[in-house]
Amino acid sequence: MHTIYLLLGSNLGDRLDYLRRGRSLIEREIGKIKESSAIYQTASWGNTDLADFLNQAVCVETELPADDLLLTIHAIEKSLGRERVLKWGARTLDIDILFYDDLVISQPDLTIPHPLLQERRFVLTPLAEIAPGMRHPVLETSIQDLLATLQDELYVERYNNTIMSKETNNNFEVDMSYLNDIADGNAEFIIDMIDIFIEQTPVYFEQLATAIKEKDWTATAAVAHKIKPTLAFIGVEAARQRMAEIERKARDLDHPEEIEEQFNYLNNVFDRLYDDLRKIRTELGS
């Protein structure tokens, strides 16, 4: 099994939907997504006249060799309308291979690590969120250090507009599209996943509450890291981003006094989230 890091990007059409569909196809054709960053809105790099991109980094486990991985990625891009007309042109979905284990590959059509990743803020920012300590096998420098010394001044911002507009009265919208995609019409599978989420998440929250109360920031970061993928899986991106912020603050000791407030907010919201999921479960089972 190989560990790979990919960067997804879109600046045409429904950008969020292209990212979502891209992740779904990656899960189906390449392998399990183990970690995903927040989504970032970024200035177009190389051709600044283009519309802004949405970008997201993902860590994937795959059995595909590197050459087959590239072919599969091209097939995914093509299936979602990608046209390779201009270098640095607009695209429905672009998937770049950033790392493949710690291999260094130099072929006419494939270079790994990606040869420009160390020059691009829109790559390093989401990548540093999920793999800050990973070392570039050629530059022998960590991702977080590459980001800290980066000269690229094009803006990169967390994409929160859509997410924040869905937060009302301390509630989060549940987006079941990803779960529906991988379930492929199997309602029992979705019900099972909802049951597992409702059963396991409160246990994780108790562990997180204990770690925060004891100001054990290492444990806090570890538990928050464990919870994040379940939130992404069930389709509550706003909650996943808040949990990622708890992890980051605990890991970096960045105003850890704010963590309890973030946690209390999520804890209150989740009572309603569980109710929403139970309603969805009931509708699926009827």
From TrEMBL:
Transferase keyword on record: yes
Enzyme class: transferase
Pfam family, one: HPPK
Pathway listed: Cofactor biosynthesis; tetrahydrofolate biosynthesis; 2-amino-4-hydroxy-6-hydroxymethyl-7,8-dihydropteridine diphosphate from 7,8-dihydroneopterin triphosphate: step 4/4
GO terms assigned for molecular function: 2-amino-4-hydroxy-6-hydroxymethyldihydropteridine diphosphokinase activity; ATP binding; protein kinase activity
The organism's place on the tree of life at top rank: Bacteria
GO terms classed as biological process: folic acid biosynthetic process; phosphorelay signal transduction system; tetrahydrofolate biosynthetic process
Location of Phosphohistidine modifications: H225
HPt domain: residues covered: 186-286
Keyword set includes Kinase: yes
Gene3D superfamilies referenced in this protein's UniProt entry, alphabetically: 7,8-Dihydro-6-hydroxymethylpterin-pyrophosphokinase HPPK, HPT domain
Function: Catalyzes the transfer of pyrophosphate from adenosine triphosphate (ATP) to 6-hydroxymethyl-7,8-dihydropterin, an enzymatic step in folate biosynthesis pathway.
Family: Belongs to the HPPK family.
Protein name, as recorded: 2-amino-4-hydroxy-6-hydroxymethyldihydropteridine pyrophosphokinase
The organism's taxonomic lineage, starting at the top: Bacteria, Pseudomonadati, Bacteroidota, Sphingobacteriia, Sphingobacteriales
